[in-house]
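Q: Joint fold for the lines below.
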Amino acid sequence: LQRFWPYKITGSGILSRAGIGCAETRANLFEGKLKIRPLTPEQPYLNVDLRQEWFERFDAPKSFSSWNLMALVAAQEALDQAGIKNFEGLRVGVSLGSTVGCSNHGVEFSRSFNFGEMPDPAPFYGHYKSNTSQFLSRYFGCKGPVQMVSNACTSGADSIATAAGWLDADLCDLVICGGNEGVLPQIYQGFRSLMLCSPGLCQPFDKNRQGLTLGEGAGILILEKSNSPRKAKATLLGYGSSSDAFHPTAPHPEAIGLSRAVDKAVKMARVPLEQISFINAHGTGTPHNDLAEGRWVLRNLPRTELVATKGYTGHTLAAAGAIEAVLTILSLQEQKLPASLGFENADAEIGISPTTQVVSGKYETALSFSLGFGGTNSVLCLGRVT
Amino acid sequence: MFGEGDVSGVYISGLGQISAAGQGVSSLKRALLEQLKPSPKIEVWKTKLGEREVSYFSVPEVEMPANLPESVKRRMSRFSKMCFASVAEAIEDAKTRMGMEFPADRIGLVVGSAYCSLDLANLFEKKIQVEGPAGASPSLFASSVQNSIASHLSITFGIQGPCSTVVTMEQTVVGAIRLAYDWLKQDLADCVVVAIGDEISEHMRYATAHQEGAQILGEGVVSFVLTKKDLEKTYAEIKEIGFTWLSDDQKSTDKHIDYYGEMVTGPAFEVMISALNVLSKQREKLVAQLTDHGEVSWLILGPRASMEQQ
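A: Joint structure:
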């Protein structure tokens, strides 16, 4: 069924508050170089400062959407890392997850329309026609399948799994996959209205955690078949997905859906659960998520290292699964785990703690968890390449 | 289970629909048979170009499944209600045709839409624009998130397998079916419910008012239950699904647009109509959709293998 398993990850690209590109992110995570600015009322989330050079390099107008530009920069880094200069003779697919990348967030059009100002409708069509996957596919001239998934916070991981399915079906030779996200005022207000936002920076798994901190960015992988001639930087060994069928915005307290997704991922990976080296948790910093996720880890892998990275990146929503896949790959490459920024005090109700400092070890396989609104759960199993 | 056995085919084993032709597959079948084309509504919009007319086929009041609590119904968008009605019919149809039910964790769900619940999302934004941050409604926000429909469907119908929402404009229809097809082929599920469609939003009607010679807009949802089991009463087998780049003369096969109207996810109706035709006439059918940029997504439906041998 998985004809081209294990899937080769031949390149990765990342932009987030944790760093611009893999090299800077690696330094920030493992050398403690990152300085996170405190949140302010004007800037209540972890943004990415766009650089003028990106607009010039990609010939993008100033009006270009920040999330599409971030996806483009991350995709270019991933392709450069894979050593792919052109797609001659290659069937290339694009599979991404995003919220803003495929929804109507023409803010000015919407405001003007709602106040009866009869705006030019071009932004309405323009936005939908610039769906990030279709945009990247056209930008790079890819001739393969294109898909945009909007599955809340599991979208990035789901898109990577979709890519593996395409490779097995031989629909294409390689896939640019992952996720991108931007934070718009209405998204922040939505999370705030649900009382899910932390007043300060998020504190995943901490007993004093008060919610999530939104973030923006992009994480892109180049996924290829096991027989690709290019050298793998890591492998995608397995993935699993499930639905809690429990609550529109809260995870199942016993993480039953997560449990099923993990079972599927390790089965496909052909790795016994106890051989998992570490877990990159979803770890949003909300009371419910961290409790459910932590309980699962305590029940099943209490001695396995647990890392929460949203203290560095913020919760990048639909991009989170992809960004965290890249962070997991960096850990496998470096054989180091970062400290879980924001965590200070253990929560007795959870019963486990994530890393508190940079640690070194022998890490061969890792699980990356994503849990989303609507009770979706996705798990990626990633492997080290020596 | 992973790595065990193979999946020989993927079959359409249940259908549901809601459109201007009515609620239920039988309504659309009757409309096609008797050529009962719906009458469009006509609306006038003020634009900077002057007053402009927009015509559209509207879905009548949606009859909701009886088992749905009132509190849930109140929070649902109109589009979400259409999805519910269509999915409920497809699931019942599949149960009847297959004479069996699947375990909840082996059932997957894919929702495909170009625009999702756009009116509800706009209402959420409008309240903030008018009232400031205090206008942000948690229930409107939760229901306007693109995967909220899949979430409500999975909770109501107890679907615990993989669940996703595909939003890829013109490639949504084939993409959503392809995702379900891959889950079945990869043995991530034994059965996948796929609901595809759109509603006509205010934004869309306003934007269309600016177009010269615009077609009559449409809305609705088509649901499919896809399975790996080839039983006597399944509609058709999905023979191939692909994404290609073809020349500009490749035509979309929107042949029944007079019954459901112009919509990005309209080819879902063509897939359903093809499945009905395959069952009755036992001939292969191709459904293709062309994007503005020349990409083509397509699928081929054919008679079940066992029927071909007869």
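Q: Anything notable?
A: Chain B is about 35% helix and 25% strand. The two ends of chain B are 32 Å apart (CA to CA).
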